[in-house]
Design goal:
With 199 residues, this protein is α+β, with helices and mostly antiparallel strands. It has helices at 4-11, 15-68, 79-95; strands spanning 118-124, 150-160, 166-169, 172-175, 179-189. It contains three helices and five strands; from the N terminus they run H-H-H-E-E-E-E-E. Strand 3 (166-169) and strand 4 form a beta hairpin. Helix 2 (15-68) packs antiparallel against helix 3 (79-95). The longest helix is centred in the first third of the chain and has 54 residues, at 15-68.
């Protein structure tokens, strides 16, 4: 005579196999989950890096554009040139102030200067020429000049990743570093627009 418990187990064909399959699925999911999380964080970090690069490049364009509009007169040595550089730096800092790792010197919150991104500029009277102030002899204000004078703004930015996946294996660095430094620059030609004459 068969007991009711044995009869109920016998009446469910393959019951033990289904339980084993369920356990196997849980183990497979537990093994795959960390890889899926790593891939998700990598996608998020790459998207953040791309967005930061575009923002830094846009800030460099904003600063270089200001330095070239209204002509070579902005680059007269002395207070005029110093004011131009200060305003270019301020515009670059304001344009990049929404970046996640944006930094200013301690105690300042006016976007007049920033330490991340860093700011540098170069004024050249000829392609490939050396940086320096615009001299009258350079004729940068001549609209018929064969090669225009240019202003280049370079911004350097240190980006910190959410999850760096960085390993030090017996002195060998593997994976992605915790911080990525990159530079973006923008070059504009100096244009001379005389606003005093009107349209």
């Amino acid at each position: 005579m068969t007991s009711p418990a044995r009869a109920s187990r016998a009446s469910v064909p393959g019951g033990g196999a289904k339980a084993r399959e369920g356990g196997q699925s849980v183990v497979e999911f537990a093994l795959i989950l960390p890889l899926m999380v790593i891939i998700m964080f990598a996608i998020v970090d790459f998207a953040r890096i791309y967005t930061a690069m575009m923002s830094v490049e846009s800030a460099a364009r904003e600063a270089a554009d200001y330095g070239t509009t209204l002509g070579a007169g902005r680059w007269q040595v002395g207070p005029v040139m110093d004011g131009t550089v200060d305003e270019m730096r301020r515009r670059a800092c304001v344009a990049s102030s929404d970046l996640p790792d944006y930094a200013e010197p301690s105690g300042t919150l006016n976007h007049a200067t920033c330490t991340n991104p860093t700011f540098s500029y170069c004024v050249t009277a000829s392609p490939g020429g050396s940086c320096g102030p615009v001299n009258a002899a350079d004729l940068c204000d001549d609209p018929l000049r064969s090669e225009p004078c240019t202003v280049t703004v370079t911004l350097g930015y240190d980006f910190h990743l959410i999850n760096p996946f960085h390993l030090d294996f017996f002195g060998v660095q593997l994976g992605v570093p915790a911080q990525i430094a990159f530079q973006r620059d923008s070059t504009f030609a100096i244009t001379d627009i005389d606003l005093s004459t009107g349209p």
